[in-house]
Amino acid sequence: MTDEADNPTLWHGVLYNQFELENLQSQLVRVYELLVADGDKIPFLKIASIEFCSFGNSKPFRIKVVNELNDNHDYFYIKRGDASRVYGLELEEIFSPDKISFLVQGETLIEEHIVGVPCDEFLLMNKNVKITNRLRFAKEFVKFNERCFTRLLGDMRAYNFVVEIIQDFDNIQYRFRPIDFDQQSYEGKKNIYLPQYYVDNRSLVQLGQELLTVRTTEQYMHEERVAMKKRFSVNRQRTRSLLRRMKKDTISTPNNRELLKQKLNKYHKTNAFDSSISMGDILTKHMELKLGINFF
Q: Are 19 and 45 in contact (CB under 8 A)?
């Protein structure tokens, strides 16, 4: 497959014989109805294409759905599910300003399409160009960075999150949204959970250093933590249920767990993580210290 500039992408068209394709298309339409309409029938839908991505550990399929009545289209993704990715999606639902629909059955994960421009492509398109409302762009990266660290979402390189461009009545606004959640509470190195340390994101950090003071940056970080506390207040039972399950689950390696305990003890200037026996324990204690609340 190629993009609009005729450059090759990592997506490949998938071919099926006619008998398989007819049955598969009807089942995929049904999956889409479950994802976006809670199973209610949506007329005039058809599957326009099925593509496979050879990059990444989830080996996703991208399904294009078209409404034949108005030619409007949408996408959804079929991926290999794992504990980190499902926990990551749940935490995104609870603690981010955005909502995302997904379905899980066994080892199969269905995700809705997250609208936005992959950040690496956005930066490339705007190289040497002063984008509109640069201050807002820098502010949103600070808040995104703080949100990822607080809920321990790792591997937020520029190609793993998108820039959502929002036309306000008098300006352009931005929002950063992750699109890959497989490094939720998995790695042992603290900096893995801070997007500011990735080389891919260097220009975002430089923009923040150019436009924001230390005091302003700290203010935006505080604002995001307050917002996360408010989101918890309306999702108390869901959050507690999720964290209880994470505490009992094995979602990383013993080495990663022990390393992260050391790093967060040093960061928070405490020994509180010494007693943590799982990544779920570590995440719970870290979020409690960052947000100044008790989940239980």
A: no
